[in-house]
């Protein structure tokens, strides 16, 4: 498995696993630095050896030239030309390979070393001031305490700012090295193969790989620019409102606590910083010893079962933000812990069910939403898609940046509202000058946004409902037509994949990992465009077995107990947790199956039979017994749910509780 993405939200949690991920990225860049230094050293040796070879060849040719045989003289001339050409290309090696690699090593990796030192310095500075604050006596005057709290808060914000910048820089260099290190090597290979006349056939065999590598490098560069802008935008939003991205979970709560370890008299006690994870349902607290200043080594995990939690007053212990934990595993033993701040203290009290009430505490789940469009594949929607495509092909097929340049949001919304309103007169966009091309393309992308290797895609497309497949085929044919004019509009298949990948296959959560997966979305769209005639015209001959997606996607009953109004981005599912813990399948087929599966929404009514009993937990759900028959069953917009009718009442049904008839 490759390197884990560094999530900006983890900068605020600063967990041991996050520090371990940072170490992995730093180790990878250190390995790259050593590789470039060794390559530079060996390259200089190669150039020197080549120069010595050239001098020996020139002396050998001069010796042969002293003979009076004419053909020997001709051989000398050829050798001299060859030697001159060799020396010329050897000089080019220094320019095309050695200097770019050395420049990347000194400028990028050298700058990262300075960033790392600053990050480690800020870490030491922040945690030292935090411990100093927590060790302050509560008997000090309130202004002194407030001033100390303010200073630590300022230092915390500065530390988190540095953490965000360092994580962003780490990932940027990881992505940048993919083309800035490989591109000089490609130029070197091209130089070497240009020189070797005897190796012409070898160079010819290499040509297809060279072209493919050039395309891959350019695509990687393009994706890097798009990914960097997405990452910077996400970092900006997290920086503006870090609390909204705080990693909260209905299952557990985690963070740092200082644990009081009591020693036999007269040694007193000591406070040890531990990273704690509290599993709410089982009331289990997992504690891991971790100190940023000791090399970041993770100690052993200790788990205890919590019986009760009580706030500890400053009258009993001269420390703030303390809690007394009654442990079930050790009757009569009370464990005293200290939170990092007042807000952190309240969060731990609420998570552990502390006896003292906590007010004004909220858990936020931030969901980035796009403008909602009532996109239906009815006659009006189908007419809008055809009208838009006709106008784009007639008025803007040769426009540079077609589909990449976006229109004004208010105009796009106005056009959409007008076109999908059944009561309004239909507007011919091909003849109307009131709507520019970029507004039409943006409206088409927005309208289609709620709906979305060759055999796998072919089979999955033909599992879509007829209407969905028709409009997807219409769009892919149009995009193929756009790509055919790429010399004028500069929109190649790869560029269109970059534009329509996020539009048709937008992820449900905004994380760095999701941004890094954008390249898979682009690949799927590229396949659909390049093979649209086969995929949308012919039925698939045979289909591969579907992956075990239904098992992974089937929600447990427990996952449906959460409020719909504040539904989190991920629900508790033990099988899904296995995926998150490293068993994630990287198969492109599974990725396609997951995303195209979103489009596969049934538009016909069917019957279903209950295979498990269920008691409704919400007014919108149905209660039923084993064997009950549901009528008019359709796919719900709620993931993992169906809609059906039972005894005259229509409501939601858990999808894994019924079988279709």
TrEMBL record:
Domain SH3: 603-661
Protein name: Rho GTPase activating protein 10
Residue ranges of every copy of the PH domain listed in the record: 250-357
Localisation per UniProt entry: Endosome membrane
Pfam families: BAR_3, PH, RhoGAP, SH3_9
Coiled-coil intervals, chain numbering: 210-237
UniProt gene name: ARHGAP10
Gene Ontology molecular-function annotations: GTPase activator activity
